[in-house]
Amino acid sequence: MPVEPLSQKEIEDRLAELPGWSAEDDRLTRSYRLGSHFAATAMVIHIAQVQDELDHHSDLTLGYNTVSLSVNTHSVGGAVTELDFELARKVEDLAPGHGAH
Ligand SMILES: C[C@H](O)[C@H](O)[C@H]1CNC2=NC(N)=NC(=O)C2=N1
């Protein structure tokens, strides 16, 4: 089934399951804080691995002690789809192992 943009209501319903994530300007975003720059770097590598597995890629920013993601789906013209939530869910699941919050 082709991926389609989600409605505002569908986005809000899914965001309720993902504390810390928000939707702004047709993008799903979240920033994480980590214990060190090295820990943040390791999390970026882990996210990159997951993104390649999913073949879905966020704009992924490494800060001093922070990792920030911003994602939408290019193939539908830059809207939020199930693919963005699938990536967000997987990042949420790996975050605790990096001590990210
Ligand atoms: C060919 C490849 O499947 C596409 O270019 C993928 C790769 N990663 C992607 N990432 C995102 N965020 N949106 C896309 O539409 C997308 N498309």
What would your notes on this structure say?
It is a single chain. The chain is an alpha+beta fold and 101 residues long. The chain has helices at 8-15, 37-54, 82-94, and strands at residues 22-24, 27-33, 59-62, 66-71. The chain has a 4-stranded antiparallel β-sheet. Strand 1 (22-24) and strand 2 (27-33) form a beta hairpin. Helix 2 packs antiparallel against helix 3. Helices cover 39% and strands 20% of the residues. Keywords: Lyase.
Structure keywords:
39% helix; alpha+beta; binds the ligand C[C@H](O)[C@H](O)[C@H]1CNC2=NC(N)=NC(=O)C2=N1; 101 residues; single chain; 4 strands; 4-stranded antiparallel β-sheet
How many helix segments? 3
Structural category: alpha+beta
**Poorly predicted sequence stretches spanning 5 or more consecutive residues:** none
Q: Which molecules are bound besides the chains?
A: the ligand C[C@H](O)[C@H](O)[C@H]1CNC2=NC(N)=NC(=O)C2=N1
Rounded mean pLDDT score: 97
Label the overall shape.
globular
Main beta sheet:
4 strands, antiparallel
Beta fraction: 15-25%
- The Cα radius of gyration reads 13 Å
> Strands across the major sheet, in which order?
1-2-4-3
In whole angstroms, the N-to-C terminal distance is: 34 Å
What is the helical fraction, as a range of percent? 25-40%
**Helix/strand order:** HEEHEEH
* Count of strand segments: 4
